Structures are given as structure tokens and as C-alpha cells.
């Protein structure tokens, strides 16, 4: 697929998204920690999207996309395939906008996630991960029912919506020197780059992937999109196999660096959040702090933003990860 530059969102699109999200998404708090400041010799600012509605930033992109449907599209509703936070985001956004939503999930997805998605009024259709192709199912249902498929990251309006989290952070805390952002398919990072470049042009923005799932790092090194096998990592929100063409175009142009962290380092960061800051952060949401704690970057004396992307983790799983 060839890529024309006008398909890429700009900071103006983030500003428009923020206006749409007013009164819909929470303005999430920014926390600080003297303990971590002392440990790193820096001043850290934690943007708590784990406290966003649905427990992650993804409501921002989903709502921004659905709010721009034509009357025709609204009648048909929204379709997504996801077993994670994007599913719940689409379901809630559709409920708020009073349109139908259909989510395609693997039949072995956690019962709690299916229940949460249905709780927002979405219809859930299950498929067998090993014998059926979810994209084929999605295309068939989309054309049969006149529904619009919204992908989790490679979509102009989704990227612009995700960018509102860091726009908000930089309005709450100006003049950051560094910003660490959790990275899966790159919707959050590319939106964050649009906001950071506009509001804090000197701020260095670092994307953070799990070690086993470094598809963006590999793609940047190769100079083109690299597809990897589904990575094995506890960071289930970052098990993407490749960035999208839109997210990669923005990241490649603007990012300062992409770092990786191990699952052990993620657990260490989750433990810190729980013990010292009294907050529940899911493994993927801990990527950013794990990198700040373990990088060689000269953070001493700097003002550092840490985006906590989400907090959705079953408590049994949470206890198992931290108890080990
Ligand atoms: C989806 C998600 C990510 C990754 O976001 P991308 O836009 O795919 O890079 C990170 N953390 C959490 C909690 C998520 O739900």
C-alpha cells in the first residue's frame, strides 16, 4: 500500500480529538514519587491512564474514531477484533454514542474480559484461534451488517485520540526533558510524538517494547516494517507482530529511540507501583518505568514523563506475577 502524507494525522487532529473527548474521557492525574526520584536522581511525573475509563488510554482513540462516523456508519455500528483493552474501549465508546458494537474475540479469551465487554452493551462473537481467521470473519460480518471495522492502532483517528493523553500531560506538567511511552503497535507512541513535538519540542521521546516483542526496534534498524512471530511476554498489550504503516511512518520520523525491557524488569516496576505508589499497573503499562529504571540515558537532574498506559490485570494473575 502506498502512503500519502495527508493520511497521517497531525497535532491539529490531536487538538480536535481533545475537544471531542472533553467530558467523555477523564483528565487523569499525574502522580510523583520521592522514592523513585531519589533512586534515579531525576524528577518523575507519572501520567495515570490506568485510572482512565475502561482502565486504559484506549478509550481516547476509540471514541475519537466513532464520534466521527457518518449517520450511515452510526446506524451500522462499530466492529473490532481484540481480546484486550481495545475491545472494551470500542464497546464503551459505542455505548456512549448509542450505536451497535460487535467484538470478535477468541473463544478462550478470559471470561472476565468477555463479561466486561458485554457489560458495555457490545455483542461478542467468538472464534477458534487455531482453525479460524478472525480477519475473514470480521470482513464478512462488516459487509453483512454494514459495520465499520476500527483497528486498534493503525488508524488516523485512533492515533489522534491516543495523542490526547500526552497533550494533557504536557499541559499539566510543562518542560519535560524525557518522555517514556509504552509501545505495542504504536498508536499511543505516534500520537504522543505529535503532542510532544508540538508542545515540548526539546523533549526526547522514548518508546519502550518488551524484549521478546521488539518489532518496532527491528523495523527502525531495517528501515522498513519487520514482522516477527507472536512474542512470548507477560506484556499482553504489546504482543504485536509489527507496527502499522501509519504508526511506523510517524515513529520513524520523530522518535528519539526505542528501548526494550525484560519480563523480570516489568515485574520489578509493577511491584514498585503497588508497594510504593499504591496503584495497580498491568504488565504492559509498566514498560515505561521499567525502561527509565534500567536505561543508560543521562536522566540525572532531568524532568521525566512516564506514561502508565493501563491497569487491567486479573488480581489472581497480578498476585501470581508479584508473588513469584
Ligand atoms: C494497547 C495498549 C498498549 C500499546 O498501545 P499501542 O497503541 O498498540 O502501541 C500499551 N499499554 C496498554 C495498557 C494497552 O492497552
Automatic annotation (TrEMBL):
Gene3D superfamilies: 3.40.50.1100. Signal peptide: none annotated. CDD domains: Thr-dehyd. Transmembrane segments: none annotated. Its cofactor is pyridoxal 5'-phosphate. One of its GO terms (molecular function) is threo-3-hydroxyaspartate ammonia-lyase activity. This is Threo-3-hydroxy-L-aspartate ammonia-lyase.
